[in-house]
UniProtKB/TrEMBL annotation:
Molecular-function GO terms, alphabetical: glutathione transferase activity
Family the UniProt entry places it in: Belongs to the GST superfamily.
Function summary: Involved in the oxidative stress response and detoxification.
Protein name stated in the entry: glutathione transferase
Pfam families reported for this sequence: GST_C, GST_N
InterPro entries: Glutathione-S-Trfase_C-like (IPR010987), Glutathione-S-Trfase_C_sf (IPR036282), Glutathione_S-Trfase (IPR040079), Glutathione_S-Trfase_N (IPR004045), GST_C (IPR004046), Thioredoxin-like_sf (IPR036249)
Length: 224
């Protein structure tokens, strides 16, 4: 560990999933160094990275304070961070409580319901070798279905768990930004999903989130 910080976060400059982890690290004031892998060079499939993450995808986190322990899969990383280091439960709830499992439920939903469908929309819109309108339509419909699930809950309560911000809420932010800015056409977030838009705006205004996102904009701008 040459950089002297507690964590090394293997991430990607543009991809949403690494930034979820950055949000949580920033919220807890934990020190980390980000290593941004270049997908165009297939660095996520390089043998040295596969030793850390056999799935060959970002993010992966190395905890130098815990014997260089490695965790991969973004929401597993997030859960690890708060279970080990959010002892005051600033952005998490106590293990073993009912609310802990509600928090886990939303993390699983984000990982299985939001990320893959939003990501597939992006793939078929921007990267697939041929345009497949039926695929784009399917995944855009799934984006709105997921937002509808959130709306059904957030129209009745301010946050997903425990009436306060937790990792459950923070995990949704980057992909929601992608949906609102790139993945949906003629989309009026506040009109179509007002409670979810209000929740998202409140999360995005948090200093830790703004700090991490400003870093994202900085590293992306450096490539232009």
């Amino acid at each position: 560990m040459s950089h002297g910080k507690q964590f090394t976060l293997y991430s990607h400059k543009g991809g949403p999933n690494g930034w979820k982890v950055a949000f949580v690290l920033e919220e807890l004031g934990l020190t980390y160094e980000s290593v941004y892998l270049e997908f165009s060079k297939n660095e996520q499939k390089a043998p040295e990275f596969l030793k850390l993450c056999p799935n060959g995808r970002i993010p992966a986190l190395v905890d130098h304070k815990n014997g260089d322990f490695v965790v991969w899969e973004s929401n597993a990383i997030i859960q690890y961070i708060v279970d080990k280091y959010d002892t005051e439960h600033k952005i998490s709830v106590a293990p073993g409580t009912d609310e802990y499992y509600t928090q886990l439920q939303w993390l699983y939903f984000q990982a299985s319901g939001q990320g893959p469908y939003f990501g597939q929309a992006g793939w078929f819109m921007f990267y697939h070798q041929e345009k497949l309108p039926s695929a784009i339509e399917r995944y855009r419909a799934e984006i709105k279905r997921v937002l509808g699930v959130l709306e059904s809950v957030l129209s009745k309560q301010e946050y997903l768990v425990a009436n306060r911000v937790t990792i459950a809420d923070l995990s949704f932010v980057p992909w929601n930004i992608a949906a609102a800015t790139r993945l949906l056409e003629n989309f009026d977030f506040e009109k179509e999903f007002p409670a979810t838009a209000k929740w998202h705006k409140a999360l995005f205004e948090r200093p830790a989130v703004k700090k991490a996102w400003a870093e994202r904009e900085k590293v992306l701008a450096a490539d232009q």
